Amino acid sequence: MFIRHLSVVDFRSWASAEVAFEPGPMVLVGANGQGKTNLVEAIGYLATLGSYRVPTDAPLVRVGAERAIARAAVISGGRELRLEVEITPGRANRARLNGAPVPRPREILGVLRVVTFAPEDLAVVRGDPGERRRFLDDLLVQRTPRLAGVRADYERVLKQRATLLKSAGAARRTGGSGDLRTLDVWDGHLAAHGAQLLVARLDLVDALRPHVAAAYAQVAPASVPLGLSYVTAMTLPEQRDTSVFEAALLSELARFRTHELERGVNLVGPHRDELALTLGDTPVRGYASHGESWSTAVALRLGGYELLRDDGLEPVLILDDVFAELDTGRRDQLALVAGKAEQAIITAAVASDVPDPLAGGRFDVHDGEVRRVR
């Protein structure tokens, strides 16, 4: 899989831009603030319908514009597919596949698969558990696009149920009882969607673990092994079946109902789980050095990349301004992997930041223009 052409309109700093790519390493070089990261962010958005830099869509639209458009021509399995997403803050986004509108934007998920490694990935290692849950769920959707619907439905249930918990809890504190029949219905929805998400995450962690361990050993050969495990407060059933997990979640919801009503929050479900990262027996978060944290971030992304490749899904590899942050050993190991990718799109402030094996096609990004120079 590779991107043949990218175009954006009113996306971030770009009024418009067109870039013709080829397979192999493609390097975008430009000083900070010239917009090179904005271009790869648009690619990532077409693949995931989200930004790896910001949690909402509003910053993606150029100041003064009403909407932004990102388009790409993708070569996959020997045929060309054309993607388009129109981003309109405050309204539902719209998407097209091969020029035809799709009922929902998430219908295009899976057409373009991308693994992005950026400085923001340190937050996956050092940030709160939500960052690591997002890492898992984004990779889940890349592997199995239908899970985007499960993820969206689960988040919708959480919001609806939290509102109901607050109102029912307030009613009980003032002598009323609240309408708990509706809460029973939402419990069923949470357990149904949560069970699917939980089983999928557990399967993903099992599949991802050896790839991440191997990637860490490659970029940090002198270090102790990197481990990852899925941590949840509930006792997991031995049988990894969604119906069994659904029943377990319903039982847990019943057990915590009084506490949830008192606090007005959802206390049960995969939204409270954690991906634990360890170096030997020591947690990475809070204990790892700066270099170990970077190695862990690299290993997570490369592990995800290799997992997708194992699934037969050759993703586009994006390396956004990361080589300047890495020491020589980590740069060289990352370059080895990127050099084998069908397509690697790399951004750098100066060309010398990019290792020589990745000196393929080069574009200068300057003063609102993208110019091919090699």
Structure commentary:
It is built from 8 helices and 15 strands. By secondary structure, the chain is of the alpha/beta class. It folds into 2 domains: 1-113 and 314-374, 3-Layer(aba) Sandwich (Rossmann fold); 122-296, Up-down Bundle (Glutathione S-transferase Yfyf (Class Pi), Chain A, domain 2), CATH 1.20.1050.90. The longest helix is centred in the middle third of the chain and has 40 residues, at 180-219. It starts with a strand and ends with a strand.
Largest sheet: 6 strands, antiparallel
Question: What is the CATH-assigned architecture of the largest domain?
Answer: Up-down Bundle
Q: Helical segment tally?
A: 8
CATH superfamily of the largest domain: RecF/RecN/SMC, N-terminal domain
Task: Give the CA-CA distance, first to last residue.
Answer: 22 Å
Count of extended strands: 15
Total number of domains: 2
Low-confidence stretches: none
Mean pLDDT: 92
- Structural class by secondary-structure content: alpha/beta
Strand content: 15-25%
Radius of gyration equals: 22 Å
Identify the overall geometry: globular
Instruction: State the helicity in percent bands.
Output: 40-55%
